[in-house]
């Protein structure tokens, strides 16, 4: 029998990792993907940037037109991989079965941890964990 499975998707993960590395970026419209003069696209945008209608896949030029004060950063794959690995280690403290689906998305088998936390709030406890919060602006779970 398959037990409860949690799906965790770290929204705006690359932006969150950059903000964790440079706290001065908190609350600023941040775009990860490159500079506004290239032919690149937005890989991810912080929530303040999203308020201007900026979305992943949008050209960086259009993003700059929508939000001239945006901060542009290049993609830093080693930094994001390291943060993802840290997140996986954090999840492994709660359950030994952690299945990464992508760099910012995992599935967790929660079947063996029901008795470890009073009230069955395993996922909520995990979501409130400071390490989890430090790695993402918003981790969606279900």
Task: Explain how this protein is built.
With 142 residues, this protein is of the alpha+beta class. It folds into 2 domains: 5-11 and 77-141, 2-Layer Sandwich (Alpha-Beta Plaits), CATH 3.30.70.270; 13-73, 3-Layer(aba) Sandwich (MutS, DNA mismatch repair protein, domain I). Helices cover 35% and strands 20% of the residues. The protein is built from 6 helices and 7 strands. The strands form 2 sheets. The chain has a 4-stranded antiparallel sheet with strand order 5-6-1-7. The protein is elongated. The model is unreliable at 136-142 (pLDDT under 50).
Order of helices and strands: EHEEHHEHEEHHE
Q: Radius of gyration in whole Å, from Cα?
A: 17 Å
Overall SS class:
alpha+beta
Task: Report the portion of residues in β strands.
Answer: 15-25%
Distance between the termini: 19 Å
**Main sheet attributes: strand count, strand direction, barrel closure:** 4 strands, antiparallel
Order of strands side by side in the largest beta sheet?
5-6-1-7
Question: Tally the helices: what do you get?
Answer: 6
Secondary structure topology:
Blueprint: E1 5-11, H1 13-21, E2 30-32, E3 44-45, H2 47-50, H3 60-66, E4 71-73, H4 77-92, E5 98-102, E6 105-109, H5 122-128, H6 130-135, E7 138-141
Parallel strand pairs: 2-4
Antiparallel strand pairs: 1-6, 1-7, 2-3, 5-6
Q: What's the gist of this structure?
A:
This protein has 142 residues and is of the alpha+beta class.
Features:
MutS, DNA mismatch repair protein, domain I, Alpha-Beta Plaits, alpha+beta, 20% strand, 142 residues, 2 domains, four-stranded antiparallel sheet, three-stranded mixed sheet
């Amino acid at each position: 029998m398959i037990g409860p499975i949690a799906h965790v998707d770290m929204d705006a993960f690359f932006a969150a990792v950059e903000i964790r590395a440079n706290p001065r970026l908190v609350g600023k419209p941040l775009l990860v993907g490159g500079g506004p003069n290239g032919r690149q696209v937005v890989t991810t945008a912080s929530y303040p940037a999203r308020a201007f209608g900026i979305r992943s896949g949008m050209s960086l030029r259009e993003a700059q037109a929508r939000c001239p004060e945006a901060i542009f950063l290049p993609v830093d794959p080693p930094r994001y991989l390291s943060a993802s690995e840290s997140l996986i280690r954090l999840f492994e403290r709660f359950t030994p079965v952690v299945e990464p689906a992508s760099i910012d998305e995992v599935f967790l088998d929660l079947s063996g941890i029901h008795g470890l936390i009073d009230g069955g709030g395993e996922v909520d406890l995990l979501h409130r964990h400071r390490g989890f919060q430090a790695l993402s602006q918003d981790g969606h779970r279900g």
